[in-house]
Each structure stands twice: as structure tokens, then as C-alpha cells.
Amino acid sequence: MDKAKLYEPGKESQAIMVQFNPNTLEYSIKSNRNNGKGTQSKASDSAAREEVLQRDPTGGGDRAVLSVRLFYHTYSNSTTYTDVRDEIKKIQQFVRYSGNTAGGSDPRITFAWGSLIHTGVMEDFSVSYKMFAADGTPVQAEVSLSICGDEADRAAERANQLTGLKAVVSALAEDAVEDPLADMWAWLYV
To answer: Is residue 182 within 8 Å of residue 172, measured between CB atoms?
Structure first.
């Protein structure tokens, strides 16, 4: 069974595998059409101002939000357990706050499971500790997170296209051994 995973875009080899696949994913798209309010002066009367709605000044489109709950359990018996917070910290590093933004940009995260790929910025993160060892060590947790970013189907489509391009380049490289002119055209597909 494939495991869901979280990773920094471009670093899939360093993915954080979830312990248990989620049983529910919530996905929503929020329109960005009326995302802010402002005022505008009428040309004829500078004192008269009317309230207008503004579009996203960055030209961004709609916001897609993926919300998921992940479960972690590290208790085997009264002598064999670990602190579940060690697993949670791996995910928590993607929460955006002023202390972890390199160069002023928010850390990006990708959630991937099967054909669903969603990349964006983690907007919400919460943990509920559900079980504790006799010494008070948390050993079971439920993590809820929301990632705001690209529409999941578009992200998966781009990933599939990239995989297809890699296959084309690989095939061209194999053909280059047989056809010396093939590598001359391979740069078009990179």
C-alpha cells in the first residue's frame, strides 16, 4: 500500500512518510475575486468615496485548500515507546512563521498520495495528543493541517507531464547510442 508523504517541493527523496494514511481529505477552492476592500475617489468629487472590491494584486487565481488529519502512534507496550512529538516536529517545520522563512518566503510543502499532489503553504497546523505513557510522554497524536496552494489536479497534471518528459529524455538518451543525431534534439525536451 502506498503511503502518503509530505516533502519540500523538489526534495521528494527527503519525504516524510505518514504513519497511517488518512481516512478523509477535505479539498476546497476559494475564489480570490473579492479578497479585499478599499476605497476609490470619484473623478468629479474628491470628497466622495465609494467602497470597491479589489482583486488580488499579484494576479493570482483561486486558492485551493487541502485539509487532512494524520494519525501517529508510537506505543508498543509499557517499556517500548517513543515520544510522538519527535514525529510531529518533522511536519511542524513547514508551518509558516517569521522564524523559519528564509529570504522572506514562506516554506512550501507538498502532500502527495497516489495521484493526488497538492503543493502550497501550510496555513493551519494543530496537534491533539490522545494517549500518554505512564510517565506522561505523549505516544499518540492526531495532526490536522491545511495547505493552501495550487489546485491539486493541476499539480498532479504538472507532475505527470514532468514524469513523461523525463521518460522522453531517457528514451532519447538510449536512442542516442544508436542514433548520434538524437542527442542533438534532446535539449528540446529538458
So the answer is: yes
